[in-house]
Amino acid sequence: MPRLFAALEVPHDAALSLSLLRGGLPGARFIEVEDYHITLRFFGDMNNEMADELVHALDHIERKPFNLRLKGIDVFGSKTPHSIYASVEPCEELLFLQSDIDRIAKRLGLKSDKGKYIPHVTVARLKQVKLDDLLTYLSSHGHFETGYFPVNRFVLMSSHESIGGGPYVIEDKWALKIK
């Protein structure tokens, strides 16, 4: 059964900027550059029939292209930090696209994501990181940002049930078009 999620790809220039965040934090497992992405909606494990229904439903999304940029870094896990991420600067078009995909998932009866949607690119997963080291890392990289980049499509990706899930495979893609 494939484990699927909808995502935006991170273009080469932004991925190169993100790669400069790699290293310098003992206990962090940094994400491979080719695995950077912005998750729109995690769908989970599903059989091929449900995956086909999902693909068919995603075919009907119509949204226009938009621009994004990454700005700042932060951590998930307030009491026990478990991952470092690059924030996506707020963007209404991104939220509309994510909301369309989320509505489709709910209509198909797929399990809801936990919590509020926070667009981001995971940079590293943390295990037994010292708080002082983490704070030093965050303060030295806190002014991270990329230039704006165009978002012209979204993709359906599959992942493996492993630590971190990668490598990821693009299973299908949909162009964003001006209505």
Automatic annotation (TrEMBL):
Motif HXTX 1: residue span? 37-40
InterPro entries, from UniProt? Cyclic_Pdiesterase (IPR009097), RNA_CPDase (IPR004175)
Q: Which Gene Ontology molecular function entries are recorded, alphabetically? A: 2',3'-cyclic-nucleotide 3'-phosphodiesterase activity; ligase activity; RNA 2',3'-cyclic 3'-phosphodiesterase activity
Q: Provide the alphabetized UniProt keywords.
A: Hydrolase, Ligase
Reactions this protein catalyses: a 3'-end 2',3'-cyclophospho-ribonucleotide-RNA + H2O = a 3'-end 2'-phospho-ribonucleotide-RNA + H(+)
Q: What is its EC number?
A: 3.1.4.58
Q: Which domain of life is it from?
A: Bacteria
Task: Provide an example Pfam family for this protein.
Answer: 2_5_RNA_ligase2
Q: Which family does it belong to?
A: Belongs to the 2H phosphoesterase superfamily. ThpR family.
- What is this protein's function per UniProt? Hydrolyzes RNA 2',3'-cyclic phosphodiester to an RNA 2'-phosphomonoester.
Report what the protein is called. RNA 2',3'-cyclic phosphodiesterase
Species this protein is from: Bartonella apihabitans
User: Lineage of this protein's species?
Assistant: Bacteria, Pseudomonadati, Pseudomonadota, Alphaproteobacteria, Hyphomicrobiales
